[in-house]
Amino acid sequence: MKLAIATCSSLPDWEIDDAPLHEALVARNIEIAHEVWTNPDVQWNRYDACLIRTTWDYVQKIEHYLNWADQTADRIKLFNPARTVRWNTCKSYLRDLETSGLPVVPTRWIEAGTPVDLGTILDEEDWKRGFMKPRVGATAFGTMRFSADRDSLQDAQSNLDRMLQTQGMLIQPYLEDVETRGEWSGIFIDGVWSHAVQKIPVPGDYRVQDDFGATDQPGDADGPERAVSEQVMEVIRSHPEWTGEQDGMAPLYCRVDLLRSETRLMINEVELVEPSLFFRHHPKAADALADALIERC
Question: Going by DSSP bridges, is the β-strand pair 49-54/253-261 parallel, antiparallel, or unpaired?
Answer without folding.
Answer: unpaired
